[in-house]
Give the backbone structure.
Amino acid sequence: MSMKKTEGGVTAAKGFLAASTAAGIKKNGSMDMAMIYSEVPCVAAGTFTTNVVKAAPVKWDRKIVYDYPTAQAIVCNSGIANACTGTEGYNYCEKTAQAAGECLNIEKYSVLVASTGVIGQQLPMGKLEAGVRAMATKLDNSLVAGTAAAEAIMTTDTRKKEIAVSVEIGGKEVVIGGMCKGSGMIHPNMCTMLSFVTTDAAIDKDLLQQALSSSVRDTYNMVSVDGDTSTNDTVLLLANGLAQNEKIVEKGEDYEKFLEALNEVNTYLAKCIAGDGEGATALFEVKIIGAKSKEQAAVLSKSVVTSNLTKAAIYGHDANWGRILCAMGYSGAQFDPEKVDLFFESTAGRIQIIENGVALDYSEEEATKILSEEVVTAVADIKMGDCMATAWGCDLTYDYVKINADYRS
């Protein structure tokens, strides 16, 4: 059995349950808390924001992931980020974990917590603890429960983001499922980006962390909506071993299969975040090919995908290639602009815009048609080697400003 996409999200893997509730944290009364629980303890891995201003949940989760052997539950709230909240905010993380631990009959240090929403406000702990108690009684392993949890962690997201894949490892079916949220303040450096991934694979904790750190570099860290690295960025990966494959304890064929499936999940979720950027009408993909190193390609692709002028041109369906070459030029990566070939492609077709740094006699009408699709790709060949990288972002629209001007109200 090769890797295949399967139904569901965080409850697709064996032994994982989920629940959600409306705890009253959001002013509009919508679902605003989610819980993920494993029937048995898991090894945990995590990657976190590189922003010096780190939200309280990031500090709590780093402690659990780095200092404790196992974790068994995740509690997430939306509406308030619990960032810039001092000692009180950190204590609220511990209180949330304590409440969940009591309800689930597990140690508080096996409960991971996450928050997303407005920075600088304290959590209403009465509502949060009541929400934890309500969810503990509703935990369910159904795919529906997983989907509801994915919906409960949304803020300015316009749609839920979840996926699951299965792969055969050591003769056993291993499932990896995940959910994430993220729409604005997205420029991960491990936005407000939260991703929770669950798997029933049996794997060593250190190898799980290595797999996640490796995967994050090529997936979430290649996404940018607006250039703002959030205070709350968190990716958590829990593995409970219930697939009963022979435990992965070294890098080899089994590890590579696991990593490939994990990349599939994380790439899909990363692209969901980019395509659902605040106010976006298009997912904008930038591929740099012909690079001398992957690092060079990554720097160039991210520079283009974060260029506001390029993003505005994509919104206007305008093949303004000069902005792309300009963004490559200030990226810090060295290349010869007089060797660059540039193409635009989408489901409407493919067109070459420049060859060796000079514009071709292309049809503006054809280019506009290609740039009018929901997924648009720019491919730049810099003819220096055989390495490549892909970054994902979105167009920049009037609605991005509207959403962020009115965010707190």
Remarks:
- The domain at 283-405 is CATH 3.10.20.340 (Ubiquitin-like (UB roll)).
- The chain is about 35% helix and 30% strand.
